[in-house]
Specification:
The two termini are about 60 Å apart. The chain folds into 3 domains: about 35-45 and about 240-325, Efflux pump adaptor protein, beta barrel domain (Elongation Factor Tu (Ef-tu), domain 3, Beta Barrel); about 45-80 and about 205-235, RNA polymerase II/Efflux pump adaptor protein, barrel-sandwich hybrid domain (OB fold (Dihydrolipoamide Acetyltransferase, E2P)), CATH 2.40.50.100; about 85-200, Orthogonal Bundle (Helix Hairpins). The chain is rod-shaped and about 160 Å long. With about 325 residues, the protein is α+β, with helices and mostly antiparallel strands. The chain has helices spanning about 5-30, 80-105, 110-140, 145-175, 180-205, and strands at about 35-50, 55-60, 65, 70-75, 205-210, 215-220, 225, 230-250, 260-265, 270-280, 300-310, 325. Mean pLDDT is about 80; it is low at about 30-35. The strands form 2 sheets. The protein has a 6-stranded antiparallel β-barrel. Strands 5-4-2-7 form a 4-stranded antiparallel beta sheet, with no helix packed on it.
Length: about 325
């Protein structure tokens, strides 16, 4: 007698479980055929930083402000680069002077001094030549010691060497500067100019300007703070480069063919905006759904769909991250 109520209870529980499974399957099936597909508004991010470390001296914007291309956003103090610029200027002036010296050659003063040195060396040589010639005869007659003759002979050889050296200097000045020296001096000038241009380019980064029209979202540094190289100081997004991004499974990708037009509703404002399918791309493998997900085939690939917004119908209130429901029927 007790088995009958037990069987009735088991049957009732089984019926409830079957009913729940049917409802769940219908709800999931309806989710794949819903008229709206939800996505979000995405804006291209802009991150501005300095190439070299410096101290923030002025901020000309605040969060939420919209700026135009070329507007000054912040200023940095770069004392080390200022010192490097002075050094580069000095090196450039020295290199240019050496180049002009190589081009113009020796001055009148250099030529006169070289010729005077040659005349003096010639006089010393003549005197030494005559002296050693007289002493040679006396040495032959044993009238002087060998030591005295050898000293005069050494003086003669030294005078001869000095005469040759002075003559080489005069000949070099008369022939002018060698082409190799001119090219070397020109190379030094080019290297100094490049070093100065590099420093000037880095100094221009002391003034952080907007690369395009943008909306400032966050400012990570404050005035008088030291900004390391590469650290984002100001970040924002471009209001002129906004699109809607959604993800769709492989089975529904046919609804989003390229250049197809559709409409989307901004949930925050209720405004309807016209959209056009611009591109699709496959998501990484971690986004692939396996058979554990109902109503999807084995290892179904998921894709990111980019929908462009018609610029003429762009609403006034359009912020990054807003939800949009797309009607893809």
């Amino acid at each position: 007698m007790r088995t009958k109520p037990l069987l009735m209870t088991v049957a009732a529980v089984s019926m409830l479980l079957i009913f729940a499974v049917v409802l769940l399957a219908r709800s999931q099936s309806g989710a794949t055929t819903q008229p709206g597909y939800e996505g979000r508004i995405v804006a291209e991010k802009i991150h501005l930083s300095a190439k070299v470390p410096g101290r923030v001296t002025a901020l000309h914007v605040s969060e939420g402000m919209r700026v135009d291309q070329g507007d000054l956003l912040a200023e940095l103090d770069l004392p080390e680069l200022t010192a490097r610029r002075n050094q580069a200027n000095g090196a450039l002036q020295s290199a240019r002077a050496q180049y002009h010296l190589a081009i113009n050659g020796a001055t009148v003063y250099d030529r006169t001094r070289a010729e005077a040195s040659l005349d003096a060396a010639q006089a010393q040589y003549d005197l030494a030549y005559r002296s050693v010639d007289r002493l040679r005869a006396m040495y032959s007659d044993s009238l002087i010691a060998a030591q005295q003759f050898e000293e005069m002979e050494a003086a003669y050889k030294a005078a001869s060497a000095q005469l040759k050296a002075a003559q080489v200097v005069v000949d070099d000045l008369k022939s002018g500067t060698r082409s190799e020296k001119i090219e070397m001096a020109q190379g030094d000038v080019i290297r100094a100019e490049s070093a100065l241009e590099e420093v000037e380019a880095l100094l221009r980064d002391a003034f952080i300007k907007a690369p395009r029209s943008m909306v400032v979202e966050s400012i990570s540094m404050r005035e008088s703070e030291l900004a390391p190289a590469g650290l984002t100081i100001i970040s924002g997004y471009s209001p002129d480069d906004i699109y809607v991004r959604i993800t769709a499974p492989e089975s529904e990708l046919g609804r989003f063919r390229k250049d197809r037009t559709m409409e989307g509703t901004i949930l925050a404002t209720g405004e309807v905006i016209p959209l056009r399918v611009a591109s699709t791309r496959a998501l990484p493998s971690y986004a692939t759904r396996s058979t554990a997900y109902p109503n999807h085939t084995f290892d179904e690939k998921w894709y990111e769909v980019r929908l462009e917004i018609n610029g003429e119908a762009r609403p006034d209130i359009l912020a990054n991250g807003m939800r949009v429901v797309i009607n893809h029927q």
